[in-house]
Specification:
With 261 residues, the protein is an alpha/beta fold. 32% of the residues lie in helices and 19% in strands. α3 crosses α7. It is globular and about 55 Å long.
């Protein structure tokens, strides 16, 4: 059974929705892998329940196997349209059905090691700024190979913590070389962590917006929000969680679990 979560203490009613698709290009059926004795989706569900602010957790899935798996360990799951173009659309589909929440958190199903504190931070960012519609996280980049990796999405934000741009390219571009900035304090380069919180009404609006030009170029959905003129609050955490995208990622995760985390 999934571990119990502490009682919700959020000033706004909030809920975590985990989009969970069965198909995966680089790691087939990854959410049902269970070398650790638990499926990957169960590990992520348990991570979500470590949040102290969220009032509940639900898995939004396109496939009956994942639905049945979540129900088997006592979790909540809802079936969503298999043709949904993205995880955000899947989360929005569930959000349309739950009218008693103000904040919806989108936690990817392959993020089993995300801390409860990180989840609480994206919620608190919206609680503290009632006019904000969306929040996310970032963590400092200290390695050149990470900065130059297109799979590592970078973000720059202003002094108020509002995102200015997201990119797969190194941003800001260090004209005289990045090495001397990698150890700078305060940090210069930040990796974006793909955890989001939305005002429910804004999430429903976002799901109706067409893809934007920058979004299509970078293949980054959050750019749709910036191009439409909305702000995204960015909270900074010390370490990035490790998403599970490849067989190597999963083997490393399973080894960490065997060693006790």
């Amino acid at each position: 059974m999934a571990t119990s979560s502490p009682p919700a203490r959020s000033g706004c009613r909030s809920r975590i929705v985990i989009p969970a698709r069965l198909a995966s290009t680089r790691l087939p059926r990854k959410l049902l892998l269970r070398e650790t004795g638990k499926s990957l989706i169960e590990h992520t569900y348990e991570a979500a329940r470590r949040s102290k602010l969220a009032g509940g957790v639900c898995v939004a899935t396109d496939h009956r196997e994942i639905f049945d798996e979540v129900r088997s360990f006592g979790g909540e799951a809802e079936m969503t349209d298999p043709a949904a173009p993205s995880g955000t659309d899947r989360v929005a589909e569930v959000a349309r059905r739950i009218t008693d929440v103000e904040i919806v958190v989108n936690l990817q199903g392959d993020e089993p090691e995300l801390s409860g504190e990180s989840i609480d931070l994206v919620i608190k960012l919206l609680e503290d700024e009632p006019g904000a519609v969306m929040s996310t996280l970032a963590t400092p980049i200290r390695r050149r190979e990470q900065l130059e990796d297109p799979a590592c999405v970078k973000v720059v934000f202003d002094r108020r913590g509002r995102a200015m741009y997201f990119s797969r390219s190194p941003i800001p571009f260090a004209r005289d070389g990045a090495d001397r900035f990698l150890g700078a304090a305060p940090p210069v380069f930040f990796q974006h962590i793909g955890l989001y919180a939305y005002r429910r009404e804004f999430l429903l609006k976002l799901a109706e917006m067409p893809p934007s030009a920058l979004e299509r170029a970078e293949k980054l959905e959050q750019l749709r929000v910036l191009e439409a003129g909305y702000s995204i609050l960015v909270g900074v955490v010390d370490e990035a969680s490790v998403g599970i995208d490849t067989p190597e990622d999963y083997r490393a995760f399973a080894e960490r679990q065997r060693r006790g985390g």
